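Quick bug: RNase H type-1 domain-containing protein output formatted oddly.
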Amino acid sequence: MRYDKTLPQLWIIQVNVAWSPSPHEAALQLAFEQDYQVILIQEPWISAFRTRRLSKHHPAYNLFTPIEDWAHKPRTLTYIRKHPQLKAELVPYGPQPSRDLTAVQVGSGDQQVTLMNLYNAPPGSVDAGEGLKHLLSQTLPTRPCLVAGDFNLHHSSWQTNTISSAGAEHLLQWVEHQGMTLMLEPNTPTHDNNTIDLTWANRPLVCLGTHTEPALGFPVLADHIALSTTVHWHPVNNTKPVPPLQMATMQEDIFHSVIHKGAAALGEPPPTQLDLTPEALDQYTTAIIQAITNALEASTKRAHAHPSGHRWWNQDCQEAVLALRKVSRDPDSPLTEVETTQRNFRRTVCQAKRHYWQTQLDSFTDSQDVFRAIKWNRTVGSFPIPPLKNGEIVHTTSDAKAELLVKTLLQKAACMDDIPIELSDSSEASLPFPTITTGETYQAIFRAKSSTPGQDEISNAVLKKAWPALGPHISALYKHCAATGWHPTPFCQALLVALPKPGKKDYSSPHSYRLIALLSTLGKGLKCLIAHRLAWVAIKHKVLHPQQFGALPCRSATDLAAALVHDIEESWARGLSASMLTMDVKGAFDAVLSGRLIQLACLDWVLRSALLGTLPVYRTTRTAILHRESAIPPVELLLDQRRRSLAIRIHQLDTQHPLHLRVTHQPNRYISTRLLRAADPKNFHFIEQVDPLLTSPWDSNLEPKEQPTATPKAQAREEFQRWLDFIPPLSMVVYTDGSKGKEGTAAGAGWAGYWGTSRTKIFSGHAKLPNHEVFDAEARAALLGLQAALKDPKTQHSTNIYICLDNLEAVQQLRGQPRESSQSIFMNFQEAAQTWPQRPRAPGIQSGTVQVKWVPGHTGIEGNEEADKEAKMGCYAPLELPPPPASLAAAKRAAQRVHWQCFAQFWAEKASKHYKDLGIGLEKRPPELLLPRAALGRLLAARSGHGDFAEYHERFKHDDALLTCSCGRRKEPSHFYFCREGRKAAAHPWGQQPVADILTKKTGFTAYADWLGKSQFYTAICRRHWDAKCINLGTYRLTSGSLLLHSSSLLFRLFSFPSIFPFVHPPSSPFPPLGFLFEKTPRCTVYCLTVGKPKQPPARGATCI
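Here's what came back:
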C-alpha cells in the first residue's frame, strides 16, 4: 500500500473467527497482505483476564472496542488501517454502548462513512438477539453508512427455501425505513450453506458505488466465509500530512556540511557583555533551530512509517493458508478433510510463533535486549481514545477531544480564587549565580537522556551531532537567557499527548487521562541547566529546610523513607509514641495499588518466580541452582548488600544531609536503629568522607577533552618524548604511579623526580596505603610526589613542576574538581599546586606553575618505569602509623567482596549433590548463559537432573512419560554421550573429553550446544513425546491383511511405544489409510503389526517381525 497516494476505494473485510486465537491472528495478517483498510471481526478472541482488556493486535491496524469495561467480553472488534490519509473515530450509537455493536466513523478528505460492526447472538446463547435490538433501537445518520456482521437470521429475502427467524421481519422493516439495500448476493452461503452474514448500505453509500462478495483470497479460517466490501468513495480535498523524518536515513557528511554553513551564516556569537532583548533572544533561538532544521532536511529523508505484518508469519504459514484455501474452495472436499486442514493450519501458526519468539530469545546478547523484550508482553490492551463526555455533550472528533482535554486538565482556576502572597520587606540575600560556562552547556546537552523531540523534530542525538558547529552559539544563547531571565518563545511551544491513566473504569471522562508536553530538546537543556544550578544553590546556601526532599541533589524519596524509619525506631527506643501527618494531593497517587505492595516474606517467592521465567529449567529445579545459574544471590543476601551500600552512601552525603546528621549526631549511644546498625557510627571515621556539593556547577572543568588513550602506545610514547625534549631546562619532572598486588588489600604509591631535560633522578619514594585502590594510590602518589618536589633544595632554581602519571581519570581530577574517592587528596594537591608560584626562588629564576601531564604507561619511559617499581615496593613496605582512612573505592570493593563471600558460602551449603559431584562452583558471569536458550535448557537439565529423564519421571510419578530413547536405552542426563543414534546423526565434536568436562567447561558445553544443533538429538532422536507420524517406516506393501515393513531401525524405534498405540497413516503413503495397532507380545523382542480399527483387539495371524 502506497502511503503517499489517495485512497479511491475503501476495502472492508468481515469475518467471524469463533473466539479462536489462530484464525483471529490469521485474519488480521491476511487482511494486511491484501491491503484491506477495515477489518470487522465478530466473536473475536478475548483473553480470560478481562480486566487487562487483551485481544489480538496487529502492528498495521488500530483496534476499536465497543465497550470500555470488559467484564462481559465484547463480541465485535473493528480494526482500521494506520494510514496518514485515513482518519477513524469511535462514535456512540444509542444512549448506552453495546458489546455487540461497534460504530466507527472512517474519513478521508471530504468523504465520511459510518461502519456498523454487528454480532447478533443466536437463540440459546447468552444475551440472544441483543445486538439486533440495539441496532433497531436507533436511527442511522444521514451520511453514508454500512451495517455488516453476523446476523444469525434466516429469511427468504437473502436465502430462499428457508424458515424465517424471529426478528428477521423486524430487521426488514427497519432497513426499509432506513432506506438500506442488501449488498450481498442472495443465496450466497456464509456458514454451513446458510446465509447469515449480511451487509447493508444506505442510499448515500450505494450512490458512491458499493458491492459485497465472498473474499476469494480468504480461506475458511473458522466456520464462516469472509465477505469483502468495496466502497468507491474517491475522496477529494485530501491534504497530505507531512511525513516524519526517518533518522536512520541521515547522511552525516551532508548534515555536517550544511550545519557548518548554517553556523557560518549565524556569524560570531554575541558577546556576554551585550544585553539582548527578549525579542532578540527569540530571533536568535529561531535562527539556531532553523540552522539545525535545514541540515536535517538536506540530509534526512521524510517518509511515513510502513507498518509491517506479524514478524512470526513465515513461509510455512503461507503454505498452510494456500492448502486451506484450496480445500475450502473445492466443493467435493469432505468435511473431515476441511477440519483436518484447519487444525494443521492452526498448529502451523502456533509453531511459527513459538519458533520466532524462541529465536528472538536465543539471539539475546545484553540487557538492552531484555528490556526490549519486556514490551512484547502486552499487559493491558491499548485503544484509541473513545468519545469523551462533558456533561450531556459527547465529543467524537479529534479536535473536539483535544479542546476538551486542554480545557479540563490545563486551565487553571481564576486568579480571584488564588491565595494572596504576603511578603515582608527584607533585604535581598546575595546568592552566587555567575555566567553560564561552555562546560555547563556541553554537559546539559550531552548528559540529557534520550526523549521524544518536540515540534521542531530535533532530538538529543541531533543536538550532539550539531554541537561541533553550533556549540558556541548554543552556549551564548544559554548565557544570555540566564542573564536576561527570559525563556525563549520557541521553547514554550509543545505538542500535547494524552495518555490514559491505568485502572480507570470510565475512559469517556477527560479526568481519566493525563497530558504530557513534548518540548524542544534545546529548551530542555536550558531548563535542566538552570534547575541544576538552583538545586545546588538551595542546598549549599541553606535556602531550603534541611528536611526538604525531592528534586534536590542526594535527597531522594528513599532517603526520606530511611530518615522516617529511623525517627520512628528512635522514638520507640525512647519509650515514646510516634505520630506522622501525611498530606495527599487529590489524584496524585490514584494508581498506587496498596494490595500489591510486596511484603518482605514474598520477596523470595517473587525472585524464584522471576528466575524460573528467565532460565529454561523445569519448575521443580532447586532454588539454589536457580541462584547459581543466574548469578543472582538470594533476597536475604541482596538486602544485606543494599544495607552495606547504604552505609557507604552516607559517606558520600554532605554534612547537612538528614541521614548524615542522624548518624553523626546521635546523643544516645545505646539507641539502635536500622540506619545506625548499617552505618556503624563507632567506626564511621574509618572511611573517608566525600562532599558531593564541593563542586559547583559553574566551577567544574566539564568541557570535552581529547582521549590520549585512543592513540597507539608507540605513537603516544614518541609524542611524550618529543614534549619532554622541549620543556624548559630549569624544570622538575615528577613521575608518579599506583599499584596493588594480587593478594591483600593494600595499595602502593610511588614517585620519582627528575631534573629538567637532563633526566637526572634527584629523589624517589614510596608509601603503603592499606584499604586503598589503584586509583586512590595514583592520587596519593601525585600528592606525595609534589610534596617531595617542594621540599627538594633544587626547587628554588626551578620554574615549572610537571606531574606525569598514566591514569587518565586521575589526571582529569587533578586538573579539575574531584567528585568521589580520594576527594580530599585531590583538593590537597590543588592547594599545594596553588602555593608553588609564590614560593621564593633564586635570583633570575622566573615563577612557574604546576602542570599535570598524562604519560603512556608501560612503554619504556624511564621515569614512568621507575615510579612503577617504587609503587610495587610500596605495596609491601612497612605500614606508617596512623594509617589513613579507607578510601571510598576500597570500601565499595570490600562490600562487593563480602557480598560474594556470603554468596559463595550459601552455595557451599545449599549446592545439590549433582553439582557437587561435577565440581561446579560460583561464577560472576556464567559463560553458559551465552548459549542458545534451547541448548542452555538441556545443559541445565543434565546438570541438575531435573529434565526429561527416566529417574526424574519415576520420582515424580509421571505415568505417561516416555522413559526410553529411540535407541532403546533409558533416558539419563549423560545419555547423549553414549547414544548410538546420536553418534550416527552427528559426530561428537568434544573428542575424548569426559561427560563432566562437557557439562562444566566452556569448551565442552560450547561443543555440546553445537552438536545439539547439528544432530537434532532431543527433537528427532531422544524426544520427549514420540510422534508416530515421524517414524521412518522405510518401504512397505500390503499383503493379504498384513503389513510387511522393511526397515533395519524400526525394531529399536518400536520399543518406545506403549503396549497398544494407534498408528498414524503417513501423508505420502500410496495406500489408503488403515487403522493399525502395535501390540507388544510377551517376548519383548517381538512386535505384532495387526490390521484393525483403533481400540479393538488385534487380529490373529498377523505377520510378526
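Actually, after a second look the formatting is fine. Residues 286 and 490 are 7 Å apart (CA to CA). Closing.
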